[in-house]
Amino acid sequence: MGVPSHTVENGSVLVDSGQSRLRELGYKQELKRDLSVFSNFAFSFSIISVLTGITTLYNTGLTFGGPISLVYGWFIAGGFTMFVGLSMAEICSSYPTSGGLYYWSARLAGRNWAPFASWFTGWFNIVGQWAVTTSVDFSLAQLIQVIILLSTGGKNGGGYEASKYVVIAFHGAILSMHAIINSLPISVLSFFGQLAAVWNLLGVVLLMILIPSVATERASAKFVFTHFNTDNGEGINSKVYIFVLGLLMSQYTLTGYDASAHMTEETKNADKNGPKGIISAIGISIIFGWGYLLGITFAVTDIPYLLSEDNDAGGYAIAEIFYLAFKNRYGSGVGGIICLGVIAIAIFFCGMSSVTSNSRMVYAFSRDGAMPLSSLWHKVNKQEVPINAVWLSAFISFCMALTSLGSLVAFQAMVSIATIGLYIAYALPIFFRVSLGRKSFVPGPFNLGRYGVVVGWIAVLWVATISVLFSLPVAYPVTSETLNYTPVAVGGLLFITVSWWIVSARHWFTGPITNI
């Protein structure tokens, strides 16, 4: 079976290879194709955003295993994530469409299974993406709360502690700003995306050098590379179990790189540049993320105090590290608060890019008729932006965060879909590629050759493993407050998706619909 044409010459005009491949797949070019390979990379890199993920979940890594979980767990999660990314990149090269994962599943599962495979993958992908946006913007709202607390004297100095209603108001305001930015033309959005990537890179380099340099007390290399924290206060004593729970920080951070696939209909030569975006975003994030982890961990000297809710940052470990580093050296924590501002801007960019990726998935999924009111969500405006999809994504992410008003346990369950739900969506097309579609898959310009099947199986097995591991209890004894609701949330999504299919969707959803 021959490799499909990826470069088309029309008279003397060279047609973009991604656009010609999109036409071969049966789709019109409706979005403006204006993104360079760096812009495509920038969207995925700023969604992975090591400053966002590591800062947000550093407490988890510090609690479960401490330095060893942070320093070595990062490479374990990063290595296996690269296998997932390589497999996705290979499929992306052959099918460079905004639909990404669900379209790939449809093409690789075979004619009989295509509609259900597409439906199932699509809903896990889209809900997982909404959960990512929810968690990213909510974590920014929480960081703003901590910045205000420290700026007004800290918890021990009478600082202002925002209520959960103020935090949700921050969250709504942040989402609104992201929706407004995403309503702008793709050329403007591309600029913001590139700025986000540069900000993340420079921010990591600045903080990994500055914080340990300013800190008056630093951890020894022995502590950073060999200390294992078993004092988690959660009733868990098994070192293997503790280490596994500590991996969550790394795996949560290394998500969202499917953005490069969702942006392919707006990327030049997407059959080549989409895969480059995925792989480079993961690879560079692994390297810079490890540097950031090392820099911060060298400033850790008292783990129980950093995790204590009685410190000035209210138990937000990285905020307390930054604040103390400057306060102990200069008598004022203002420098630490400014450093937290650098992270806050990185998280803002992360949420912005996440809404971009969400909206392209909504656009593609509704174009194929999979969503209620599909005709409304896939409309594009005069600037060739799917504006209705943008505002829908922002609205749903706000609604998902409202669960935090009732219970943080319920909110954490919602957010768990961001890691497990999204990775299940990543694994499904890879599974179909190495099983049902093994013989029919036609590789694009980027391919793994004879290693494609082996890499694919490693990726699928890793996702299956983390799906089980991250569903385990995180505290003993298990009560309604300590129960890990991840399997409940993911199981609920599974039940709704399959039930909807059986009752209704199987009668009208036939998978991706070509529009040429």
From TrEMBL:
Similarity annotation: Belongs to the amino acid-polyamine-organocation (APC) superfamily. Amino acid/choline transporter (ACT) (TC 2.A.3.4) family.
Organism: Gossypium raimondii
Major location (coarse): membrane
Membrane topology: Multi-pass membrane protein
Domain of life, source organism: Eukaryota
Designated name of the protein: Amino acid permease
UniProt keywords, alphabetically: Amino-acid transport, Membrane, Transmembrane, Transmembrane helix, Transport
Matching Pfam families: AA_permease_2
Cell compartment(s), UniProt: Membrane
